[in-house]
Amino acid sequence: MNHLQGKTIILGVTGGIAAYKAAYLTSRLTQKGAVVHVIMTESAKQFITELTFQSLSKQRVYSDTFQERDPASISHIDLAGSADLVLVAPATANMIAKMAHGIADDMLSTTLLATTAPVMVAPAMNVHMYRHPAVVSNMNTLYDRGVQFIEPGDGLLACGYVGKGRLEEPDTIVSVVEAYFAGQAAPESLLLAGKKVLVTAGGTVERIDPVRYISNDSSGKMGFALARAARAMGADVTLIAARTDIAPPQDADIEVVRVESAQQMYEAVAGRFGSADVLVQAAAVADYRPKQAAEAKIKKSVDNMVLELVKTTDILETLGKAKTKQFVIGFAAETGNTEGYARDKLVRKNLDLIVANDVTLAGAGFGTDTNIVSVYDVEGLVFDLPLASKDEVARKVLAVAAGRLNGVLQ
Ligand code: PMT
Prior knowledge:
It is a single chain. It is built from 13 helices and 19 strands. The strands form 5 sheets. The chain has an 8-stranded mixed beta sheet with strand order 12-11-8-13-16-17-18-19, sandwiched between helices. With 410 residues, the chain is of the alpha/beta class. Ligand PMT is lined by residues 218-223, 262, 281-285, 287, 312, 314-316, 330-333, 345, 357, 359, 365-367.
């Protein structure tokens, strides 16, 4: 079935060298039956002409808000109202900033404010611009408003740099648009449908003797929020929980497996990893355990006692290195040099994403209902989330994972 047939798509073309690729995009969308109305910014016209888009779309091309050819209508309002989808490709940092701040000073930005249609944005810019905190923050604002991003690809950029920033290939953009109209990409409740998600939570307990142990302050809240969010996105969820302060989610659709030690958690996770699509390791796992757990309560005797500790298995590192299709997400609980340590763990453990939390910050880390996180992939920062509920953190992290699993990158 052709999901693009008869759909009205407004294609916003902004001023970057990738504007030339929008010509092929227009052609592909039109060939597939979409009615494509192109709106160009003045800067885009420096790179490609209106006539190109008019010829390919067989439609009038818009760029000037005040050039009203039909007295009976107001173009930007009519266009905005007629759209099934507004796609901005390529989207410059400038247009993304205007969208984030509600600036309406040209035909495209005005139409974007006037539309109630879903909006997709395919950024294209220099790699450093793409990673600039201002651009990241603007993209996060738009993401929170429901804008769907088609993440740029890696490669040699027109500016000479190599990295992320190249407009995603037009054929891929067309596939994303088709997937949207096919109903595959949209509601949050479907983002992880059919995926098996393993989540770990809580702090492991490493026995010294039957009544004493080494553990940590993890309450389980972050891991439980992740399990709930994954379930809400339609995933088949298994929650592997060590010691927690609160009860796990009472949702019959979330399988809960209780474990105690790092070793037990390793066995529970490893046994399910082969069939999993996503592993989110939010548990605080002991790095060391007592070499010997005494079978009976240790009696008070000597003044000084030495407890010999040995390393536990690093669950995430072992499975990260063994992964095949799985999308693996780690957490990094840090008390300083958060980005440096987190990114080192990301690489060392072969992760797809790492969620770094500085557990010294008020409202972040252990025991709280909120967290403050920065999420990294191998390229660098994916997004920062200032103080937000753990539910919100969970949703955002999993939405990125779902997008990447489905080839629709945020
Ligand atoms: O449970 P809460 O009270 O809500 O608190 C949430 C949290 C602070 C526990 C959570 O946000 C968090 O940061 N979890 C990871 C804690 C941790 O063990 O961080 P780490 O930086 O020491 O370890 C890095 C990663 O390796 C983690 O994903 C950890 O689960 C994993 N790891 C560590 C050691 C080990 N032997 N095996 C592992 O898999």
